[in-house]
């Protein structure tokens, strides 16, 4: 479903961070319950540093973001009136979502430098916006 590009407005850095904080809370709840499943099955044998548990939780995170971004909004984006679009104004592809997820992880791992880049970019885009050819916008009705 294509969105009307004419009614899109770039988001502020504060709104982007609001979405990020809200999504962090939502994802923490999702990961808490997702981690509960293998803990029930194996019990004390699973430790937080277990590479299989970490990989499993990373895949849960990737799945959450891919499903939400393909539809145009995460829970945080919904709460803050933000949507994600590709360069033509439509919803991003699964490939773009995967690239965005990896890019966002790198942006965070480098002390948030990829996010801070949005303060310098004329379109308020982050590194992962540029890598995935997506952007966050508000829709004006």
Main structural class: mainly alpha
* Portion in strands: 5-15%
Computed CA radius of gyration, to the nearest angstrom: 16 Å
Spatial separation of the terminal alpha carbons: 16 Å
The shape, in one word, is: elongated
Q: What is the averaged pLDDT score?
A: 91
Question: What is the helix tally?
Answer: 6
Structurally, how many domains make up the residues? 1
What's the count of strands? 3
What percent of residues adopt helix (DSSP H or I)?
A: 55-70%
Strand order of the largest sheet: 1-3-2
Contiguous runs where pLDDT drops below 50 for at least 5 residues = 1-6
Q: Summarize the helix and strand pattern as letters.
A: EHHHEHHHE
Tell me about the largest β-sheet.
3 strands, antiparallel
Explain what this protein looks like in three dimensions.
This protein is mostly helical and 141 residues long. It has one domain (5-139). The protein is 58% helix and 9% strand. The protein contains six helices and three strands; from the N terminus they run E-H-H-H-E-H-H-H-E. The chain has helices at residues 13-42, 51-71, 75-79, 94-109, 113-116, 127-132, and strands at residues 8-10, 83-86, 134-139. Strands 1-3-2 form a three-stranded antiparallel sheet. Helix 1 (13-42) packs across helix 2. It is elongated. The two termini are 16 Å apart.
């Amino acid at each position: 479903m294509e969105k009307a590009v004419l009614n899109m407005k770039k988001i502020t850095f504060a709104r982007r961070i609001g979405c990020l904080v809200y999504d962090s809370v939502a994802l923490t709840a999702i990961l808490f319950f997702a981690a509960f499943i293998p803990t029930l099955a194996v019990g004390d044998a699973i430790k937080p540093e277990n590479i299989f548990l970490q990989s499993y939780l990373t895949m849960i995170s990737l799945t959450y973001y891919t499903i939400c971004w393909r539809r145009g909004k995460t829970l945080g984006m919904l709460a803050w009136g933000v949507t994600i679009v590709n360069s033509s104004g439509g919803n991003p592809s699964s490939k773009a979502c995967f690239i965005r997820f990896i890019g966002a992880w790198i942006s965070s791992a480098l002390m948030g430098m990829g996010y801070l880049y949005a303060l310098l970019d004329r379109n308020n885009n982050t590194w992962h916006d540029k890598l995935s050819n997506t952007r966050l916008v508000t829709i004006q009705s």
